[in-house]
Amino acid sequence: MSIKLYNSLSQSKEEFMPVHPKHVSLYVCGPTVYSEPHLGHAKTYISFDIILRYFQFCDYKTFYVQNITDVGHLVDDLDEGEDKILKKAREANQEPMAIAEYYARNYLDLMDELGLKRPDITPRATGHIPEQLDAIKKLVEKGYAYEVNGSIYFDVSQYPGYGKLSNRTPEDMMSGTRVETRSEKRNPNDFALWKYAEPEHLMRWEDPWRGQGYPGWHTECVVMSTKYLGDSFDIHGGGMDLKFPHHDCEIAQAHCLEQAFAKYWMHSNMLTINGQKMAKSLGNFITLRNACDQYGPLAVRYFIAASHYRSVVDYSEAALHSAKSALQRLHQVTRNLRQKLPENPKPKHQHFQKFQEHFYQAMDDDFSTPQALAVLFDLTKEANTLLSEKEPNLDAVVDAEYLFSTMGGSILGLIPETLEEETKAGEHLDQVMQLVIDLRKRFRNNKDYESSDYIRDSLHEIGIQLKDGKEETFWHWTNK
Amino acid sequence: MSIKLYNSLSQSKEEFMPVHPKHVSLYVCGPTVYSEPHLGHAKTYISFDIILRYFQFCDYKTFYVQNITDVGHLVDDLDEGEDKILKKAREANQEPMAIAEYYARNYLDLMDELGLKRPDITPRATGHIPEQLDAIKKLVEKGYAYEVNGSIYFDVSQYPGYGKLSNRTPEDMMSGTRVETRSEKRNPNDFALWKYAEPEHLMRWEDPWRGQGYPGWHTECVVMSTKYLGDSFDIHGGGMDLKFPHHDCEIAQAHCLEQAFAKYWMHSNMLTINGQKMAKSLGNFITLRNACDQYGPLAVRYFIAASHYRSVVDYSEAALHSAKSALQRLHQVTRNLRQKLPENPKPKHQHFQKFQEHFYQAMDDDFSTPQALAVLFDLTKEANTLLSEKEPNLDAVVDAEYLFSTMGGSILGLIPETLEEETKAGEHLDQVMQLVIDLRKRFRNNKDYESSDYIRDSLHEIGIQLKDGKEETFWHWTNK
User: What secondary structure letter does DSSP report for B38?
Assistant: First the structure.
């Protein structure tokens, strides 16, 4: 078995052949930390989290770097306009680095809440100024970049491959630039590597040109990925909107620095709302905080996993609601299986093996999470049939629970080791419920069925159902 | 009213006069991120958290910077030995920056768990290499530092004030250095600002001397504090063990860079275990993770707050246990007060005013948290007397609850807005308890006292007590 993935660079599915056998080096472009993440950010990072988890599950040793952009990302994503963080700092009357700190922590908290595995390194752009200056100086020395008024631009005429990732011709690119702006660039398609900073600019560093400047947005990822993953690494990922200019600019620089750079480029598609891209700049966003509070972080995760990472997903409240109930079905069947588990369960891998095969086939085929989820729901039906039997085969219960915990848990990250209601019930509620069950038994022993029915009805309103077993009575949450 | 604090520099209590009225700029030396924090770290950061909270409560606008050391802190704290992070990375066979990332996140998680207010900026040493190089170059130009074999040392003979914070003479210092080591320094007391790095050294940056090097431990805090707080700022804090050499080295550099630097120096004292300093290097430490798991983060907080920040605190299990029960008393009285609160309670500040005054007097006097806690316990007695009355004065209840929530909550951080058991009880347990209370009423109406007593006794075993009011029956947790 091998993993096939869609390489944006070749525009085709390729078999994954790592640079170093059984190792995966992964770099994903992280957020610019100047505002609350919205649901669109979650799509990118959840997608790559599942990809990472699948590699780990397949016994690859992973090394995952995801940067934080805390300087140099300008408002219009091209080379004009104010730095996003400086703009926010000015509006909030705060230190730029306090803005970056606040939103970085906020972002990292949300990623934790969504159950994302933490990257091995989360390097910051401001933490790699010498490395960026070093790369830029080399590009100038080699003739791929030039200085104008203390700013350094990459000269795209020196790199004919420019635009190959996004598959754009120079004419395509021209149409995207603002020709009316007077520019110091030689060619409107040239992009900034370093910008001259006036003395009043709040984030600036010494440079060998006009004295002080700050990095452009496109160099940080080149130097940080290769610093930590080596000149040649496996996968470079990010949102689809980063293909151009960001990733094409990275490729141009890495090529001219004679770095083999990323072997595979992977892009997660957009999240739309009413068919339009969800973006801070468009003002049509749902914050991730709100989505997590309203539906729960795992429902958000489910909503993203329910579509392929290369598909566009349209947001609607209904879609989140249905993600939440689908998730609850998975949790319920897992909970029911776990209640039946013997002590020290050891899966024998004899039952439901074809579900496992189909699941891996789906994941091996460019991480097709929708198909993988479909397999989980087929398995849910089988598991419910098993559970409805009077004395379910315990080996089958153990095997089924193992599959939900690995495929739905370890890989998709949707089924935690301890399920919500198991915790909610808690030690004390269970003790009080034992008392209630005792009292009901007393009433029934005294043939006071009015009172015992009163207990059953009252519990039902609370959302608790009693189930009389042979010896004991159990209670569980009803699905309301 | 004014705040007096002990300035380590003058070795006396001084009235706090901020650089800018009603503003406090605070820099506290953060951790070197190469291992699990132990209880000794908590003492430093909890102490400064309470100091910060008190300033905020007194309407100061605070700006708090706490660094993270991720390079340059050598094993023996002087200028010899391996970099602590590199050593750990070598042992764990991992990237040094992955080690720093892991332990930084781990540290920040624990600080969140302890309820510490997050610093406004958490700058990293590796994120400020250009700034450090800039300062070091200036010191060389001014003749305060010299180069040997690509390393730069501060020349203490050029700064006669060296050692003034720790009150050491050059002879005192000499006794602490290892004279037997062959050294390239001119004077054994000179300290490293920058160290030459062999090509195989994993963390190194370009420098203007022998090509590549890495910063010493003592320059980062000078450049990061002044970069974000200005050349002249209010308070520089840290653990007592940082006085020498770290803080004396900082003062020397800042002086020679003509920076006014910190106006007040504050040092929290050591945590000992059987009278010996708790330290990673001594191997006699309790990890903060274990302490939080075993006693709860707020009990750890209480244990630290129960002593003055300038006192040595000796760790023992008994001390943590008694901290936990003292904390529970504070929580219990607050919980009882909160249960009696009317809707939309508005404190009138008429009752218990002398407790508030005494609390502020204690805090104004160099943040005397033990005295402040004593006031809270005096208030606890008064509040319990109030609560034992048949119809307690509601204005008094509101005022008392306000005092526990502000003094014990906002300032000391010991009483959260929502108390643990209030959450543990939760919506569902309360609903089930209402059913149990209903059932007991049924039994009593039917004069079945055996069954109603059975309910009371069973609940008592669970740790729940019933209290019959005029109209209704309430339940609360017993203190077991």
Answer: B
* In a domain? residue A391: yes
Terminal CA-CA length for chain A: 42
Angle between helices A420-445 and A317-340 (to 10 degrees): 60
CA-angle at B8, arms to B4 and B14, nearest 5°: 25
- Check residue A426 and give its pLDDT: 53
Last residue of a domain, one of A411, A434, A469: A411
CA torsion B37-B40-B46-B48 (nearest 10°) is: -110
Gap between the Cα atoms of B5 and B51, Å rounded: 10
Tell me if B278 is assigned to some domain. no
Domain end, chosen from A235, A253, A268, is at A268
Report the number of distinct structural domains present in chain A: 3
**pTM assigned to the model:** 0.87
Which of B118, B424, B439 is closest, CB to CB, to A428? B424
Contact residues, A window 394-413, toward B, CB-based 8 Å cutoff: none
- Looking at this protein, which amino acid is placed at residue A254? A
Whether residue A458 is found in the same domain as residue A390: no
**CA distance linking residue A411 with residue A362, whole number of Å:** 12
**Whole-number Å distance between alpha carbons of B324 and B300:** 8
* Residue B416 within any structural domain of the chain: no
Q: Calculate helix-pair angle for A317-340, A297-305, nearest 10 degrees.
A: 110
Separation CA B237–CA B250 (nearest Å):
12
Contact assignment for A439 to B451 by CB distance below 8 Å:
yes
Give strand pairing partners of A66. Answer: A28
C-alpha A178/C-alpha A186 separation (Å) is 14
So what's the ipTM on this one? Answer: 0.84
Q: What is the pLDDT of residues B71-130, one digit of tens each?
A: 989 887 667 788 999 999 999 999 999 999 999 999 999 999 999 999 999 999 999 999
Asked if A254 and A357 sit in the same domain, the reply is no
> Which pLDDT tens digit goes with each residue over A436-459?
998 999 889 989 898 899 999 888
Neighbour count for residue B18 (Cβ, 10 Å) = 18
Q: Are residues A212 and A322 in the same domain?
A: no
Q: Please check whether residues B307 and B384 belong to one and the same domain.
A: yes
Residues of B in contact with A433 (CB under 8 A): 432
For residues A19 and A263, the answer to whether their CB atoms sit within 8 Å is yes
For residue B247, the distance in angstroms to the closest alpha carbon of chain A comes to 24
Q: Indicate the SS3 state at residue B365.
A: strand
Other Cβ atoms less than 10 A from the Cβ of B279: the count is 16
Query: CATH number for the domain including A333?
Result: 1.20.120.640
**Rounded to whole angstroms, how far apart are CA atoms B209 and A262?**
34
B49/B192 same-domain check: yes
Do A396 and A425 lie in one domain? The reply is no
Mean pLDDT of the region A315-334: 91
Instruction: Give the gap in angstroms from C-alpha B38 to the nearest C-alpha of chain A.
Output: 23
Domain with A383 in it:
317-411
CATH code, domain with B112: 3.40.50.620
